Amino acid sequence: MHNLSKSVVSSLIYSMRRRIVVELYSPSLRILWKEWDARVTVVLNLTIQILLSILGNRRKSSRKLAIRVFIWLGYISADSVATFALGILSSNVTDMYDQRNNNAVDTNTELAAFWAPFLLLHLGGPDSITAYALEDNELWLRQGIGLIVQTGMALYVFLMGWTGSRLSVLSLVMFLPGLVKYGERVWILRSASNKIRRTSMARDKFFYRKENFYKENDIKQNSGYFIGVDRLVEIQLPVDLSGLNNNNSITDEDVLLVAYG
């Protein structure tokens, strides 16, 4: 009896939640979102990129809280919005491909395929900011995996929307710099990580010492000094250690020779 009443209450709660969702998202609102979802996400992502491009360098010179909050929000949401937009384009272009006539050119499909390379370019981020903090550089491997996944998704949208028109050719032209830009971001994050930076600093320090050594030799040689290469030969001096075993007094010279030996 208790289990039956519990199941009835759960059913009522589920029905109420479903009714609230249906009332909140009416059929007209869902149709409107289905029609404009790709456009809204692409424009939103473009707005975030413009915001980061303008304010990206300001975080180095400005201590205003509002600017730092806007930059932080734009930085953490840029990748998520671009990924979400690629997912919407992937779903929409599949529906368009199934519904369109193969003998006709669908402009919506072409436009969806044209947006995908731009989103890949946006995932590369603006030049004004690559990482918000030093800790973000350690996530370069995660960004590398994201590069593979997002490139595959953008390639899928591009191939599904390919019609051979001029707009499709322009999509191919945009796809290559988008891939390069995203790969450049992963490479920069990897180069700025702690492990790679320490290795690079040690290597640079070695070459810096070597370069200074050769410069110093050139300066001395130009000043008239004789610069040559000599071989250091270690010479074993004959040392009489018998005096140490007895209580006999030894000279300071013998002490130095014994110490050297």
Automatic annotation (TrEMBL):
<feature type="transmembrane region" description="Helical">
    <location>
        <begin position="69"/>
        <end position="91"/>
    </location>
</feature>
<feature type="transmembrane region" description="Helical">
    <location>
        <begin position="145"/>
        <end position="163"/>
    </location>
</feature>
<keyword id="KW-0472">Membrane</keyword>
<keyword id="KW-1133">Transmembrane helix</keyword>
<keyword id="KW-0812">Transmembrane</keyword>
<dbReference type="Pfam" id="PF13968">
    <property type="entry name" value="DUF4220"/>
</dbReference>
<feature type="transmembrane region" description="Helical">
    <location>
        <begin position="38"/>
        <end position="57"/>
    </location>
</feature>
<dbReference type="InterPro" id="IPR025315">
    <property type="entry name" value="DUF4220"/>
</dbReference>
<feature type="transmembrane region" description="Helical">
    <location>
        <begin position="169"/>
        <end position="188"/>
    </location>
</feature>
<feature type="transmembrane region" description="Helical">
    <location>
        <begin position="111"/>
        <end position="133"/>
    </location>
</feature>
<feature type="domain" description="DUF4220">
    <location>
        <begin position="72"/>
        <end position="248"/>
    </location>
</feature>
<protein>
    <recommendedName>
        <fullName>DUF4220 domain-containing protein</fullName>
    </recommendedName>
</protein>
